Amino acid sequence: MEEAFPAPGDEGEGKRRARARHLIGLDLHARLRPLGRHPDGPPASNGGPASKVLSFWRDCGSNISFASDVADHLDLFTEEEAEEARGQLSREFEAMLAELEKELGEAEGENNVSSRTKKAFCKALSALEVNFALCRSRPAANAAEESIGLFRRCVDLYRGYDERENTIADPLVSLIASQVYWGGRPAFASDPCRRMHTLLNVLVVLSSGVDLSPYNSEMLLSLSLLFGHLGASELCSDLFWKLDVKYVQLETIGAHVLLPCLLASGNEREASKFCDRHQAFHLDHNRNAGDTFAMTFAQGTFLESVDFNGLRSRLRDSATRFAVAAERAATRVLAKGAQGLSQAAQVAQVERRELDEVLSEGLGGDVLLDEAEAGSGGLHFNQDLSVRPEWFRPVAEGAAGPAGVLRWWDDLEAEDSNQGRQGAAFWWSKPNACNSLGEERASEYRQGYRRGAAYRCELARCLEAALGGEGCGGGAALRAGVERAARSLGLDLSSGPGVLDASLVGPGETARKLQVMQLAALAVTANLLDCASGAGGGQALEQGLSALERNVDHAVDQLFASDVKGGLLPDPSLCFFGGKGVVAVSTYVREVVAFHSLVYARWSDLAGELKKRQRKEKRKQAKGGGGSEPPPPSSASPDPKRVRDVVERFRDRHAVLGARLEPLCAQHDAKALASAWLDSFRQSGELSCEGLSRQELGDLGKYEDVLCGVAEGQVGTLKVALDRMAKFLGLLK
Asked: What is the pLDDT of residues 636-645, one digit of tens each?
């Protein structure tokens, strides 16, 4: 093998050849190992895989790609092999540091750092990355401290770069963020304070990195995700658009990074803008697709014609396109909903037609909505999940909606023995990972995303029917739509509303509980439509109303109780920055209060129709002498007052909930909140500022700045949510 790659005179060419030689050796080892064979003899004679990786690092450790080159092979190491490799690498790392410090000392005062110094830094960084990757489920306690120490020595490496350039030191900031996160991850479920302290440190590290490298995409996207999941949607949006994301990136990145966070925080204005940009991209592509395709033939670039035709198919039948279209429809209906039922109903009709047009193009819409076609082709997943950091697992269940944000928090707070850092678990880090056929978790992601998008599409259709859209088909058509939406969530409503009650019981699955409440309201609306049209169903309506009341009681008394395990709100003094409390309140107001208020406003009209119908029947019976027999209980007409009582109970209970939440916004100033959090963390001993308090990588001022930004975002989100709650509850007066 050595003879096949003679050492050339050019240094760059020599490194490329050395890299190829080592990669071939590692690949042969990986292929022959399951067979009990070794390409260079038994492990005892050649040092085993640890020796191979170390030799690779000595020759090519200064390559930026070194850590990704060996990542897959590191996952195959046994615990003993991993410990051996870490030990050898740590010993050589100390010598590497001494050499690096010498180089930096010689370069002190110069405007540009020499290439030799940069290579020494890259080699030290590769050692830290590999060492961390070999930590398995328990990262070393001092892993972040080593990396922070290296960063403090090498801040001079940022000299001579334009602010829009990525620097060689940027990956070290991302590495420190990962080390801080995984160092605290095992205690997340049992210690909420430790969980929030860890996320705060990650925010500070990444924010400090962005101060030095303002346009680094990895750090900006990571920060955008974190701020968005904390409910600071304006910060999330500003950081995301700083990257100048456009065209196909709206499809591949924006729909799973930005849009769910905007919707969960109730930022309808920015969410609507994103959906409009996404739709404009697809319309523009469709408008010019024919001319572009013809041009490739005219120029004789036939391979480009094939590629372009594949792109047309992938965009036309995109699961992301369908999911964003559904969110656009819901956002526009809710934006008009506060103005009254008639306005919302008109917008719902228009949006339903536009959504159906999108779904009818190509084959993807049929595959999305037809359970029998779920496993077949025709539906494309264009998400680029590799832009997400290794500590931010993609959540498929919510598609492009807010449910994924709540599910991420549920996973973060759950007790799970497998939550340690396992390199193989980061399946989304590879290019086009979403469409991997050999990765089981990629298949689960695709199925989960399809179900989430199907649910949101069916929900938009059902909302239009419930609000009285033209040709909605009455109770039977709405009931069929509700059953299809329920099946997308794995629920079978054929046995009645008891299934929905059972789905609300138990901790976790916050998003599922809100979805169940939506389904319950729609199912009752279908029964009420039957009763108002004279089709009977009074008993089913009464059962549904009772189930709906229990759902609302559970939400107000359990989900939003600070003294109940599994409640979404912690102690009022810790509500902000306390986990999912802020995004949960915002999502609940959007997905339940606003949604139910529109449906209940429609109920008032139906209750009036029902009362008129009952009066006519009474007059007919009076004229006939009252000799006719009363209808059976199953088809007996319900009391309209019972319907109004349910509506009034919903309004009153949520008015009380709003009154409980209002003081949290009125009594807290963002700066005072940030100072209180900082004091709380410092007094608890959870905030170890010493490791981040020197030079550019964070200090107490940076902690306070970050916390102040989060506080302003969260207070703003809650104010918007409470204002929206008051407006929609006003429809029920």
From this structure: 567 788 889 9
